[in-house]
Amino acid sequence: MTVLFEVYREFCFEAAHALYDPDHPTGGKYRNLHGHSFRVRVTLRGPRQDGDEWVMDLGKLGARLQQLRERLDHSFLNELEDLGKPTLENLCVYIWKDLEPSLPAIHEVGIFRDTCNEGCVLKKP
Ligand SMILES: Nc1nc2c(c(=O)[nH]1)N=C([C@H](O)[C@H](O)COP(=O)(O)OP(=O)(O)OP(=O)(O)O)CN2
Ligand SMILES: [Zn+2]
């Protein structure tokens, strides 16, 4: 029987952003520069690979995520190329697009701001 597993790895980063609302007379509640602590979870889905008995070596996944973390940590998200407006939703898409070419088993990207009790999850339908 082929069984499917979901394995995940997380990383955290700190970053700043400002969300300007063009429809609001003063730019809205989130217009000023401010920072958040983010936690990202990347989930892979698949069967155990022949020989290794794992979906993917989580050490290798961690090394790949570290490359992404180096770009995001202590960044000003508004200046990140290809992100667009720095919402949680756009960060999920950005992370997904960055990882998918090298991680075809990617199934879910979640980004959480634990101190604000909020987050966003993007998953394969
Ligand atoms: N769907 C989304 N909504 C909001 C996002 C987002 O990315 N996606 N982002 C923000 C801002 O980044 C905001 O700075 C979040 O901080 P928070 O303290 O949660 O702001 P709130 O107004 O929701 O909370 P308070 O309870 O008033 O502090 C906003 N929304
Ligand atoms: Zn914010």
From TrEMBL:
Alphabetized UniProt keyword annotations: Lyase, Metal-binding, Queuosine biosynthesis, Zinc
EC number: 4.-.-.-
Sequence positions that bind Zn(2+): H17, H34, H36
Known cofactor(s): Zn(2+)
The keyword Transferase is assigned to this record: no
GO terms under biological process: tRNA queuosine(34) biosynthetic process
Record's cofactor remark: Binds 1 zinc ion per subunit.
Pathway linked to the protein: Purine metabolism; 7-cyano-7-deazaguanine biosynthesis
InterPro entries per UniProt: 6-PTP_synth/QueD, 6-PTP_synth/QueD_sf
Gene Ontology MF annotations: 6-carboxytetrahydropterin synthase activity; metal ion binding
Catalytic activity: 7,8-dihydroneopterin 3'-triphosphate + H2O = 6-carboxy-5,6,7,8-tetrahydropterin + triphosphate + acetaldehyde + 2 H(+)
Protein purpose: Catalyzes the conversion of 7,8-dihydroneopterin triphosphate (H2NTP) to 6-carboxy-5,6,7,8-tetrahydropterin (CPH4) and acetaldehyde.
PANTHER family from the UniProt entry: 6-PYRUVOYL TETRAHYDROBIOPTERIN SYNTHASE, PYRUVOYL TETRAHYDROBIOPTERIN SYNTHASE
Entry's family note: Belongs to the PTPS family. QueD subfamily.
Name recorded for this polypeptide: 6-carboxy-5,6,7,8-tetrahydropterin synthase
Source species: Methylosinus sporium
Upper lineage: Bacteria, Pseudomonadati, Pseudomonadota, Alphaproteobacteria, Hyphomicrobiales
